[in-house]
Amino acid sequence: MxxxxxxxLPSPPPAAPTSRYPTLLTVPRxxxxxxxxxxxxxxxxxxxxxxxxxxxxxxxxxxxxxEFVTLDExxxxxxxxxxxxxxYSRDTVGAEDHRKGLAEREYEALxxxxxxxxxxxxxxxxxxGTVPLLxxxxxxxxxxxxxxxxxxxxxxxxxxxLDLNQCLWLPDELTGKRPGVNESSHTRxxxxxxCVAKELQRNGLGYALxxxxxxxxxxxxxxxxxxHVAINxxxxxxxxxxxxxxxxxxxPAQQARHLGRPRRLLLWLDMKNEPL
Length: 276
Known about the structure:
Blueprint: E1 18-19, E2 64-67, H1 71-85, E3 86-87, H2 95-114, E4 121-132, H3 141-146, E5 148-151, E6 154-167, E7 188-196, H4 205-219, E8 224-230, H5 234-242, E9 246-250, H6 253-259, E10 264-270
Parallel strand pairs: 7-8
Antiparallel strand pairs: 1-3, 2-4, 4-6, 5-6, 6-7, 8-10, 9-10
Helix pairs in contact: 1-2
Protein name: N-acetyltransferase domain-containing protein
GO cellular component, one term: chloroplast
Pfam family, one: Acetyltransf_1
């Protein structure tokens, strides 16, 4: 769905953030050829927020699901990912500096992947779900502050995001087996960094993001689309199954323990059977 740069933080250093969903794909500034991921420290998947989600106002064109348009939007998407994947206790010393450091590293790495400067990544697209700064979102002050950007004079909020990666494999993840060795493996792609703001879950945004990625993958000539999901993240599994993905394989327990994260399932979608 990693070895972080050393940060100069006040003593005591911040506790390791808890990763809730698929890991961010990132790369250290000092090494452009290595592609490590942040290590997932959680022992259980994040539960779906028990409180009733905020409802998006029914307004024509309120929700836009598309590839990112501006760098300001890309930054907002990265901040949403860090906000979603990592949690800190309120009294953690230096948490905000640590969060900003993660966001800056991922922003730089995402730009490199999108621009084609990363080995293994043939093509990468960042797909976001954005909404105007609606009155119904005003109670989610943290979301609005962290994930806001301005486009054509309008304030908008990134409320969902994912990456579509045309590549042979993702770092520290199971590798898809399709297409076979006698076929072009460049028609394989992976989804990563799939997230929806917790305040807006159960609004269909996750499904819309995956659906948009499927359409773009078809335009790229992708025949086999993959996604990794934690074995205990039932909500995400239901989303992908609803989107047409099926089980292909799963991560060995020993590998998951070595990486310090829950085991992953590898799900596959046969794009050749997807309706046009």
